[in-house]
Structures are given as C-alpha cells and as structure tokens.
Amino acid sequence: MIDSKGKLLRPAYFYLFSRLGHANQDMHKEIVAAAASTEVLHLATLIHDDIIDESDMRRGIETIQSKHGKDVAVYTGDLLLSVYFDLLADATDSVEIIKLNTLSMKRVLMGEINQMTNVYNTDVTYENYLKSIKGKTAQLFELSCYEGAYFGQCNPDIIEKSRSIGQNIGIAFQMIDDILDYTQTPEILSKPILNDVKQGIYTLPIILGIESNKEKFLPLLKKGENLSDSDLATLVSLLNDNDCIKRAQVIAKKYIDEALLSIESLPSHPEKDTLYSLTKKLLIREF
Amino acid sequence: MIDSKGKLLRPAYFYLFSRLGHANQDMHKEIVAAAASTEVLHLATLIHDDIIDESDMRRGIETIQSKHGKDVAVYTGDLLLSVYFDLLADATDSVEIIKLNTLSMKRVLMGEINQMTNVYNTDVTYENYLKSIKGKTAQLFELSCYEGAYFGQCNPDIIEKSRSIGQNIGIAFQMIDDILDYTQTPEILSKPILNDVKQGIYTLPIILGIESNKEKFLPLLKKGENLSDSDLATLVSLLNDNDCIKRAQVIAKKYIDEALLSIESLPSHPEKDTLYSLTKKLLIREF
Asked: Phi first, then psi: what are they for B139, rounded to 5°?
C-alpha cells in the first residue's frame, strides 16, 4: 500500500509546515519519523475501513481485506498502529505529543463511529455530517499541520494557526472526496464509486439533495443496499438536476478559501507558496 | 467486557510484582494506570480476535462482534488501543517504556499472524506452536510482570527475573487454555469450545495426537471446517485414548514449575507468597 498511488498529503502538510520553523538539520530524523507516523495512522485506518466497507479496491490495488482476508487485514491494521506509536516514540520525548496523538486517534474513530450510527438515516443533517468528517478526516490533517509546526519549531503564531488551517483543509478534502464519488470514474479514482450511498452513508451531495427535494430522493434512498445500477444512475442525474454537486463544491470552496486566507497571513517563506498552491489545487483535483 | 468475568490476570501479575519494589505511595496513580494498560491491550486484542474467529461468546457475555457487528468491533478494538497508549502516557515519561510496549504489541500480533499462517497445516510442529503462543499470549504476561517490577522500582535482580517468570507463566497459561478447550464445558468456560480445531488451529493436545498417532488423527482433521459434532466427540476420545491431555498437562506443568522455581528465588516478601500461590493455582484452574 505504501508503494501504491497514495497522495501522501498528510506527511506533505506536516513537512511543509515544519519548513516554516527554525528547526535545524539535527531535527531531520525526528521530523521524518513524526511525518511518517501521520501516514501510517492513516494507512491503518484505511485498512480497517476496508474491512467494514468490504471494499475490494484502494489506491489502484486490491485491498488487503479482499486479497488476504479480513483476519490479515485486522492484524495488519493493528500492526501499523504499533508502528505508528513506535515512530512517534522515535520522534519525541514529549509525553504531551503521545497524548495528543491518542486523543487525535480517538477523535478519528469517534468520527467513524458517528458516521456508522447514522447509516440509512435519511434525517441525517449537515451538522452531523460535519461532525463525522471533522473526526474521521479533518482531525488527522489538523494533527499533521500542527505537528509539522511543532517539530519544525515554528513561531507560536504559526503553531496556533496550523490547527485551524489543517482542519479546514481536512473538511474540504473530505467534501471533495465525497463529491468525486458522484462525478468521477472508478478508473480515475483507483477505487470503487457509489459505495457510500449503497451502504447508507449519506454524504454532502445527498444531504443537499434530501434538503431540497425530499420527494424525489427519499423513495430512491429507501431502497438501501438494493439500489440497482439504474437507480444509481437516476440518483446521479437527480444530484445534477438539483445542483447538489455545484452547491457542495461551493461549500468545499468556502473551507479551502478559509484555509488559504490563513496561509496568506503566515510570514513570507518559499514553502508558504507551496503550501498555498497545494491547498488551492485540492479544490480542482480529479482524484 | 470490563464488567464481565475476566480474570484480570495481567494487571494482577503487574500489581504483585510492583509490590516487591521500593516505590512509595506517590507512584500509586502511575502504577494503576500502567497495570490497567496491560488489560486494555488484552481486551483490544480479544475484541479483534473475535472478529476473526466469528466467536459469539466471551467471558460469559455476547461478543461485541456478535452483538454490534464487525464494524463496531473493529473500531472498539482500535479505540481501546488508543486508550492503551493514553494510559501508558499517563503512567510514564519514559519513551523506552512506550517503545517496549509497541514492540510487545508487535510480537503479540506476529504470534497471531504466525498461528494464522499455519491454519489447517497438519505438519505444524510443537516448536511452531510455541512460537505462536510466546507471541500471542506469553508476551503480554512478560510485559506485565516486567512493567510491574519496573514501576514498582524493584531491585535489578527481580526486574531481570520478572521477564522469564512472565514468559513461563504465559506459555503455561495458554497451554492450559488449549487443554481446557478439550476437557471443559462451554458453560464453565463462558465461551464456546472446540472452535480452534474446526478453524484449523491445531494446539498442543492435537499436535501431540498427530505426533503419536497420525493414522487416526489425520483423516479426521482433513475434514476441516466440516467436522461434525460426532467427529468432534471422536476427536476428544482419541485425545484421551492417546494420553494427549495428560501429556499436554505435563508440559504445561514444566513451565509453571520453572516459573515457581524463579519466584521462590525472589527475596522474601508477603506478596511473593501470593505470587507463588496464584501461579500454582493456574495449573489446576477449571476455567
């Protein structure tokens, strides 16, 4: 999975933030270990998510769950969680950082659990969706940006801003992921599409659809896991007819814009420009 | 699960060892947190094991996997792993202890994975069985005894002996568990019996059976998951006819005796006697 098509965004944000600080070359090993830990935690949660979703494709390759069975997938995820804390212990003597990570991990899982408790709930609200994605996705972006700033020994002003920048990026990133699920092909995404709705996970486009046109959306959604390919095609048309995709993009853009505004306010630095342009590109990404 | 019929043996061994040292009352909070962490890691692995075994009963109550589904079980196990490291961070400033725990966790999982790679392998050896149980079970007993001695500020001699005492206890504990699976009722064990052999996990009694009477054992084992209740009854008779249970008990006793010998060699202390009698009782436990 490490060799596959992952974007490595979390360690990238970690590293970019770390460059904005005063840390010297001596800290390189610790910075790399801590940056890697963010991706390892991400990988562990992906592998465990795939058990739950029974997903067969991820990052363009067969999932561990599908190739080696759920038993191997459970233990591989657990093993990566031990590697995650091992890398952290390589990176720092600070128990506060360890505790920050256990808290983040807890929030990621609570986001997943919140999402799970709302499956097939057509009354799920935008606020509830936001709660799920703040946990399951944004939490790790927030941690990555913050830890980058912390390990890079940034000024307090940057350290403080890093959290909300990370959170806004993470929220937007997940919204865009959820939009792409309805607009992109599985080939380009390197993973199956339209799985969420069949499994009763109603993401931003669907929530906007229910809000604006209950009569059309509910009868379809009530079919639950029995949604046929033709039902799914109807659903996608409905989303477009009701401007749900466009409206979801506007909301995602709001979060990206907020992140960009904060990034702009950071002190001038070459890596600041990379941070800015990388974040801007997230909005127009195709996979 | 915390409220159910767990024996809490790992924190018990931790606590007994901690009493043999010089730590004063100030350390009480840290000792309790670290002792609890051993049980929390154990619980996390049990919950994940039950996903793999599709077990429906554990400690006399329905498993999380059976009651709430595998999705909840995956995340509950993960959540407990974050609690595990959280408790450790409450207990210590030592990165070495964190790293010792990630290493132990890794060895526990490698033991599970080793066991898994040998399912339905009728050529599995005693050495290989020992490798699996040293990881999946003995590792955590070793860690619990060692951490107890460490946090209790024991003399170096006790700290050094704690590891091998824990390992011998853990090996014997698992062997006895595997024996009880063939000699006890599900009611008394508070969990299903004879599941291992159906799932192709050949433990000590079966390995001794294959070694001594291949012709009788192999045709039965070859039925794999299709072993009927009457096949299982035949298997249990075969184990008794070939003295496999008795021979397994002799081997388990060897490890308990080794642990008892080391415990005897510890300096005199009231808790040393408790340690001794608790360990002795493990051999004759009925559940």
From this structure: -55, -40
Residue B77 near chain A (CB below 8 Å): yes
Summarize the confidence of residues A143-154 as an average pLDDT. 98
Is ipTM beyond 0.85?
Answer: yes
Using CB atoms, which residue from A98, A105, A113 is nearest to B98? A98
Residues B68-106: tens digit of each pLDDT: 888 889 999 999 999 999 999 999 999 999 999 999 999
Of the partner residues A52, A83, A102, the one whose CB lies closest to the CB of residue B86: A102
Whole-angstrom Cα distance, residue A24 to residue A66?
44
The domain made up of A9-283 has a fold known as Farnesyl Diphosphate Synthase (1.10.600)
Question: For residue range A94-119, what is the model confidence (pLDDT) as tens digits?
Answer: 999 999 999 999 999 999 999 999 99
Q: Is A126 left (phi over 0), alpha (psi -120 to 50) or beta?
A: alpha
DSSP element (H, E) containing A192 = none
Residue B18 pLDDT class (50, 70, 90 cuts): very high
Which tokens is A276 given? Answer: 């800015």
The C-alpha of B80 sits at a distance from chain A's nearest C-alpha, in angstroms, of 9
> How much is the pLDDT for A195?
87
Domain segments of chain B: what residues?
9-283
- Long-range contacts at B95-99 (CB < 8 A, ≥ 24 apart): B95/A89, B95/A92, B95/A93, B97/B34, B97/B147, B97/B150, B98/A85, B98/A88, B98/A89, B98/A98, B99/A86, B99/A89, B99/A90
Structure confidence at residue A183 (pLDDT):
94
Pairing of strands A57-58, B57-58: unpaired
Distance from CA of B27 to the nearest CA of A (A): 17
A270 contact partners, CB below 8 Å, separation of at least 6:
none
For residue range A39-94, what is the model confidence (pLDDT) as tens digits?
999 999 999 988 887 777 777 778 887 888 888 899 999 999 999 999 999 999 99
Contact assessment for residue A21 and residue A152, using Cβ atoms and an 8 Å cutoff: yes
Tokens of A171: 């929220």
Number of cross-chain residue pairs from A and B with Cβ atoms under 8 Å apart: 105
Burial of B5 (0-12, 13-18, 19+ CB in 10 A): middle
pLDDT at A29: 96
Nearest CA in chain B to A73: B52
Strands A57-58 and B61-62: unpaired
Nearest 5°: CA angle at B249, between B243 and B253? 145
Contact A75 B113 (CB under 8 A): yes
Q: What is the pLDDT of residue A275?
A: 98
CB contact A99 to B (< 8 Å): yes
CA angle B82, A136, A275 (to 5 degrees): 110
8 Å CB contact between A138 and A166: yes
